[in-house]
Amino acid sequence: xxxxxxxxxxxxxxxxxxxxxxxxxxxxxxxxxxxxxxxxxxxxxxxxxxxxxxxxxxxxxxxxxxxxxxxxxxxxxxxxxxxxxxxxxxxxxxxxxxxxxxxxxxxxxxxxxxxxxxxxxxxxxxxxxxxxxxxxxxxxxxxxxxxxxxxxxxxxxxxxxxxxxxxxxxxxxxxxxxxxxxxxxxxxxxxxxxxxxxxxxxxxxxxxxxxxxxxxxxxxxxxxxxxxxxxxxxxxxxxxxxxxxxxxxxxxxxxxxxxxxxxxxxxxxxxxxxxxxxxxxxxxxxxxxxxxxxxxxxxxxxxxxxxxxxxxxxxxxxxxxxxxxxxxxxxxxxxxxxxxxxxxxxxxxxxxxxxxxxxxxxxxxxxxxxxxxxxxxxxxxxxxxxxxxxxxxxxxxxxxxxxxxxxxxxxxxxxxxxxxxxxxxxxxxxxxxxxxxxxxxxxxxxxxxxxxxxxxxxxxxxxxxxxxxxxxxxxxxxxxxxxxxxxxxxxxxxxxxxxxxxxxxxxxxxxxxxxxxxxxxxxxxxxxxxxxxxxxxxxxxxxxxxxxxxx
Length: 551
Ligand code: ATP
Ligand code: MG
Description:
Radius of gyration: 31 Å
Strand order of the largest sheet: 12-25-26-27-23-24-13
Bound molecules: adenosine-5'-triphosphate, magnesium ion
Shape: elongated
Mean pLDDT: 96
Helix content: 25-40%
Number of strands: 27
Low-confidence stretches: none
Number of helices: 12
Distance between the termini: 27 Å
Largest sheet: 7 strands, mixed
Strand content: 15-25%
């Protein structure tokens, strides 16, 4: 691939360095909230930050922004770490916003002392009404001029667990008339009688995300704090916070925003993905149809393919939708190179070679990879009775159909040329068996192989040697390009036929397949052996078809 020039974030960093910012002070972070599994949207942010770390040889922290104990869990922390490692990235420091709860609480107390924060004892509804709208300025809270001593006293009582959820909050005293709604005395702390997955029952008050995020970047001395576009208006607030706790020392984090990844036919919101899991519309977070990284892994998407995809889509400030086929193309490119070939018959009918002796079996040799002879060949047993694809036979051929039909000749891939003689149907009129005769001198790999030219080339598996297995074939999880756009809910766009499990016949070499093994099943696409596959009950998931078959 052609090497791209620096993206706009890299240009900003290069500019900072050119103006004297010391390269050794560069530091980045990826800041997930551990309230769900990472998805393909996070992939973009992960690659952006960790690639910067690699490019500038700078540390990248993995910081969990764990300020909402109601939604967060260690399960998610572990999964996030696992996923980032799986992608091939390693972080410098693992940290948690909860590591800074003491510091944040101390600063908040200082803000009260500096008359930059106050305890508000109204209901959240009352405060919401006073907040105004973007075009109508807010009203001052009746508690805005509360005495510092009183605010400090109540804040301490909140901290000590003497108040119930919703009775009081700590608010920054900024500007109720600001055109930026976020500046209208935002809440810094709320009472929450909920245990935290790390600090357990230590805290009765929890800091809000906005108060925590920017300060955590500062504590960690993150030089460039990168986030998605919707955080642009938060910059002003984070700047106000840093000024309020001044004098600050060292690096003042520079926030820059990039556009979110929106992928067609896909949802990238942890909350909505959690809803799909809870409503059992999918089989868990790692359902191969899910756009989560655990789902992608089980689907057979590889870290290499995902990283190639993020390279291709780049980083910019333009909000746009990426077509799902871009992701699939990246995957095909990587899998084509990585995967050995195997044969599978997905919709079998029988082919009987009438002139082939009943008890005879012979070896055919198929390359593991057509473009890489070093990967060697595998043996396939040919016999009188074979399975072939239903689609490889037509009673009455349509125009340009070169496969089997009465009187036509095709090659059994890696084997002989056969001529179709006749066929049989069941009572419903479905083809069950095709009868052929083989031309003995035409075996692939022998001097006579090319003596007869045929246009059709079909795959097969011996009835005696093939293995019964099943595969999951997937369609898009959502029927609409932008799920929910023209409906009341994105759930109205769900495709209830997005998974089809069918019995199939695999070539005998697949008996050795272990979970996570990946192959190209010739003519059918790339498949991965499922995590629950066993020798007795082999299951493959289709990662992607060979070509883009989506309309
Ligand atoms: P979600 O709505 O799915 O919970 P989030 O932004 O709230 O997403 P976080 O855990 O807070 O999830 O995100 C961690 C980082 O990943 C943030 O820096 C965020 O900007 C980034 N991120 C999340 N979704 C996307 C996306 N679709 N494209 C690019 N970056 C994203
Ligand atoms: Mg978030």
